[in-house]
Specification:
- The chain has a four-stranded mixed β-sheet with strand order 3-4-2-9, with no helix packed on it. It has a three-stranded mixed β-sheet with strand order 5-6-11, with no helix packed on it.
- Helix content is 6%, strand content 25%.
- The longest helix has 5 residues.
- It starts with a strand and ends in a 20-residue tail after the last helix.
- By secondary structure, it is mainly β.
């Protein structure tokens, strides 16, 4: 992961999900529309807050619902949205259309996630995932992931 730059929306747009037409990040806080055949969900993120630590930085975004928590990977904010449809609804396509992508230069690495903590441990050392932190590739690799399931609500 490049220390000097990080794609802002990659850091906050890990988990996006929308049904049929996907997400379009526009100049609205949060907006959902449906015409019976498709659903469009739009979201605009606020500016990130970058908190400096001794060795790492933390990134906070007001609209984030949680953080990526895979041990040793960068702990980045993520947004999760659940859509509920009637049983039998066919999901034909899911898209994510990021816009207004900005890069922010960071002087330190993003703090690694702790992951799930074992019971009874007071202290826990977290090591960086060397493959991710030494790579020049964007992390996470995808703008969004989604899951389609059925069940009782």
């Amino acid at each position: 992961m490049r220390v000097k730059s990080i794609i802002l929306l990659v850091s906050v747009a890990m988990i996006f999900g929308s049904v049929t037409t996907g997400i379009n990040i526009q100049k609205v806080a949060e907006k959902m529309e449906s015409n019976g055949n498709f659903v469009t969900f739009s979201l605009k993120f606020s500016e990130p807050e970058i908190v400096e630590g001794k060795k790492y930085v933390s990134i906070n975004v007001k609209e984030a619902s949680s953080y990526i928590n895979e041990q040793g990977y960068p702990s980045l904010p993520k947004f999760t949205k659940t859509f509920i449809f009637p049983l039998g609804t066919k999901i034909e396509k899911v898209e994510c259309m990021p816009s207004d992508i900005k890069e922010i230069e960071l002087m330190k690495k993003v703090s690694p996630a702790i992951g799930a903590l074992p019971l009874g441990k007071n202290r826990f050392n977290v090591e960086e995932n060397k493959k991710i932190y030494s790579s020049s590739d964007a992390y996470p690799e995808k703008w969004f992931i989604y899951n389609i399931g059925a069940g009782l609500y």
